Amino acid sequence: MSVMPALPADGRPTLDRTDPEGAVARAAAEVSNWGRWGDDDVLGTVNFLDDGKRREGAALVRRGVSFSLAQRFDMDGPQTGWRRRTNPVHTMLDTGVDAERGSQGFPHGFGGADDVVSMPLQCSTQWDGLGHIFDHGRAWNGRAAGDVVTSEGDRVTGIEHMAPHLAGRGVLLDLGRHLADGELPDGYAITEDDLRACMAAQGPTAQVGRGDIVLVRTGRLARARREGWAGYAGGPSAGLSFTTAGWLHRTEIAAVATDTWGFEVRPNEFDDAFQPLHQVAIPHIGLTVGEMWDLDALAADCAIDGRWDFFLTAAPIPVTGAVGAPVNPVAVK
Predict the structure, then answer these.
(1) Distance (Å, rounded) from C-alpha 137 to C-alpha 143?
(2) Domains and CATH numbers, the chain
(3) pTM for the complete prediction?
């Protein structure tokens, strides 16, 4: 049994656009990891990223060059208020002006600056936690959603559990460069065949396997920087096809991240659906998903030196009980 639909004459998988409910149910049954690591598991596929995988990742550092894969956290960000998501608001509590005027109350001329940031935890470069998405009221590992996430936060699979683990071998698959002139068109659904072809084209260092953190570049962020944020957050975009659920499961990757707002293709591949791949990947596969990562500089360097794997450290801020958190991923080659 397979979640991959039959292929039409052009070789691309097709879906019954009128039946997202059935497609989600069939895929969930096929790729479910519920119980794989025990009833008390809080890590999902991050279990694949073990000590050996971290040593493998560290051994990839040769030149010592590093890349931050985070967008900046500021008011000039992608958010437009959808579901009350806003860009970060940065406020100074103490400033150099206060210090100059001697109004801070410190002795012997001591002065300083202090500040605070208010923001949704998923307003920019971030990880989705395992408590972020549910399927018919069920969270990761089959738990009742209401037992997991309450007004106190995610009391079971909070993002803080991921903080010690997300460092290891990263692999960049530059689909924008492989399939187009650097940027995929909006609505392009990246299939398993596309992913495999990209790996083959990029060579041995682009092969993906157990415990890897896979980064998929579409070029959508590059276009947003060039043309403006309109449509970036929630609008049309290339992304992973719903039909890649089986590939995400079989490869046993630890996590996946993209340079898009929503990881999967938008508009979604059904007539009336919202993020169906999320609905399978997070609560059923137990996959940690990253979004809005800045992969452009890293991709340019990989294309020059021909190496597509690297050491990646990407710990989320361990906000207790959070269902997602900002991250400043750093790739080191």
Answers:
(1) 9
(2) 20-80+120-332 (3.50.30.50), 89-118 (no CATH)
(3) 0.94
